[in-house]
Amino acid sequence: MEFRIAAEELRKALYRAQGIVEKKTTMPILANVLVTASKTGVTVTAFDLDIGVVSEHPAEVLKPGAVTLSAKYVFDIVQSLPEAQLTLRKLPNSYAEIISGPAHFKIVGMAPEEFPKLPKEENAQLAKVSGSTLLEMIRKTSFAISTDETRYILNGVFLEPREGGKGRMVATDGHRLSLVERELSGEIKLKGGVIIPRKGLFELKRLLDEAPDAECQLGFADSSALFKKPGLTMVMRLIDGQFPEYQRVIPKEGERQISVPRVRFLEALKRISLLSADKSNAVKIQLAPGVLRITANNPDLGEAKDELEVPYQGAEITIGFNARYLADVLSVIDTDEVAFELGDEHSPGVLHAPGDKSYTAVVMPMRV
């Protein structure tokens, strides 16, 4: 095997692999990428047995073939090369050499036959989707995914089809919930919903970030998701299980509804939480006529208070919240004002854009 390729093309392929390849694994080959040269160009494949990405790149192929190489070390080498072009040649015993101008590297590889095969997804029905819409949906839900491995059902985002070609994404960690519904340009063929795992979702986000406006396709088979855009294919295993009945935790309209300036509220929460208890980020939200007051009290550090003017004339109420949970939501809402709904001291808070619940976040209260 021998080919010449632009260093930037190979760097792009290896960068895509960095989040997928397994650094600590009992199967050393999973730390490698499979580099395959054929008449049509070069493909680079990364696969950790759950997520696989195959990217295609133009190259001058002098001799077809394949080799597997360390994703991390070859990425570091390619980034440091002195010239814009490189030659990669396979040597006997699965060694490979990389040459760029005067720089010359000889690297230990592994036999391509040992590299695991990606699952074939011929029966996944692909639908065109808007990359920018998919990216927005991921951005507005991914922060609420649970990191508790014992609750594996919550370790991903639930995607379900809705009427009229719409899709809904939901994530919850038991303390908060984030839901977004958007019109996807194509109708995704799904009987019910699927749970996309956290790692796969973040890798999908990275691929979408490269070119949000590129034409994308998304489809699902029995236990896998398939994503395609020009020159790139991604396949990932889905989480097997039943997502909880999330509608039950979304309260009906709260008794107290106010409109709050989003950026001002976000900045106040960040300021006041500096003096909240270390791990809980607990703050008190006090709603009184004309004012929303945020306070924190820490015996070791002191206390803090900030106030916002709000159009409210009802009875006074004080509720404890995790400031970071509220801040995460305020960071992804795009409007200048945010609707904040509250029930009683034991009811969750609900945030959404004024007059629009297509994005809704629910934050459970806490004792402070």
Can you walk through the features of this model?
- The chain is 17% helix and 42% strand.
- Helix 3 crosses helix 4 and helix 5 runs antiparallel to helix 6.
- The longest helix is centred in the middle third of the chain and has 13 residues.
- The protein starts with a strand and ends in a 5-residue tail after the last strand.
Brief characterization of the structure:
This protein is an alpha+beta fold. The protein has helices at residues 7-17, 71-79, 131-139, 198-210, 262-272, 323-332; strands at residues 2-6, 32-38, 41-47, 51-57, 60-63, 65-70, 85-90, 95-100, 103-108, 127-130, 156-162, 166-172, 176-183, 194-197, 215-220, 224-229, 232-237, 256-261, 282-288, 291-298, 302-309, 317-322, 337-342, 349-353, 356-363. The mean pLDDT is 93.
Strand order of the largest sheet: 6-2-3-4-17-16-15-10
State the separation between the terminal residues, measured CA to CA.
65 Å
What's the helical proportion of residues?
Answer: 10-25%
Please count the beta strands (DSSP E, at least 2 residues each).
25
Residue stretches low in confidence (pLDDT < 50, at least 5 long) are none
Largest beta-sheet characterization:
8 strands, antiparallel
| Structure annotation, total helices | 6
Overall form: elongated
CA-based gyration radius? 25 Å
Strand content: 35-45%
Helix/strand/pairing class, anyone? Answer: alpha+beta
Q: Report mean pLDDT, rounded to a whole number.
A: 93
Lay out the secondary structure.
Elements: E1 2-6, H1 7-17, E2 32-38, E3 41-47, E4 51-57, E5 60-63, E6 65-70, H2 71-79, E7 85-90, E8 95-100, E9 103-108, E10 127-130, H3 131-139, E11 156-162, E12 166-172, E13 176-183, E14 194-197, H4 198-210, E15 215-220, E16 224-229, E17 232-237, E18 256-261, H5 262-272, E19 282-288, E20 291-298, E21 302-309, E22 317-322, H6 323-332, E23 337-342, E24 349-353, E25 356-363
Antiparallel strand pairs: 1-5, 1-7, 2-3, 2-6, 3-4, 4-17, 7-8, 8-9, 10-15, 11-12, 11-14, 12-13, 13-25, 15-16, 16-17, 18-23, 19-20, 19-22, 20-21, 23-24, 24-25
Helix pairs in contact: 1-2, 3-4, 5-6
